[in-house]
Amino acid sequence: MKGFILPARGAKKGSSLAEMCVVLAVVSIVALLVVSFTTMVSARGTVGAAKLKMMEDRQLTKVILESWLNQLTEENAVITADENGLSAAIDGEVFSVTLEEDRLTAAIPNGNPLSCPIHTITGITFDVMSHSGDAIYFCTAEYELPNPSGGVIQRSFTFALNPHIGDVYEEVGA
User: Fold this and answer.
1) According to the model, what pLDDT value does residue 29 have?
2) What CA–CA distance (Å, rounded) separates 116 from 59?
3) What is the distance between the alpha carbons of residues 20 and 30, in angstroms, rounded to a whole number?
4) Residues 67/108, Cβ–Cβ less than 8 Å
5) What's the pTM?
6) Are 145 and 50 in contact (CB under 8 A)?
7) DSSP letter at 119?
8) Is the dihedral of CA 64, 140, 144, 45 positive or negative?
């Protein structure tokens, strides 16, 4: 019983070099897993934040387009879309929707432009489709999201503007 409680004389004390190497290897593997998991969670957080900003930008774009369209259809404006953008003319005065750097701006008749900051949208193009005298205008916005594995992912969404009913609806989304 005496040898069971206390080490016998001559028994080695401490640990061998091989045991130390095994412990060091296990600790290294656990540290590697922790760092990898932390990096993955951080990348997902970055992508999630960018998606949230994109959804906010999409909603702000829709609100500005709806407000612009509603004010100009009340004034019976003539709306046109071309390579320069979307514009409406009332008695020779032109009111346009523009994306300049990081702001979306829509000029309206009362003189106070609708404007908001845009974070993820990199470009906006406008197009028109007419059918038997009725026209529907399309606003396609391009945006970028960070790719968790590096680089960026380019996407777009499209709004259709119907001046006959004064509505903006999402045609194609991402």
Assistant:
1) 95
2) 11
3) 15
4) yes
5) 0.70
6) yes
7) S
8) positive
- Residue closest to 71 by CA, chosen among 18, 36, 112: 112
Rounded to an integer, what distance in angstroms lies between the CA atom of residue 41 and that of residue 50?
A: 14
* Amino acid found at 161: L
- What gap in Å lies between CA 88 and CA 113, rounded to an integer? 14
Show the CA angle centred on residue 47, arms to residues 41 and 52, nearest 5°. 125
Q: In this model, does residue 25 exceed pLDDT 90?
A: yes
Phi, psi of 152 (to 5 degrees): -130, 160
78-105 pLDDT per residue, tens: 888 877 788 888 888 889 888 888 888 8
DSSP of 54-105? HHHHHHHHHHHHHHHHHHHHHTT-EEEEETTEEEEEETTEEEEEEEETTEEE
Instruction: Report strand pairing: 85-90 vs 78-82.
Output: antiparallel
Ranges 76-90, 108-122, 158-172: which has the least confidence: 158-172
Assign 165 to helix, strand or coil.
coil
| Paired residues of 26 in beta bridges | none
Each residue of 50-68: pLDDT tens digit? Answer: 889 989 998 998 888 888 8
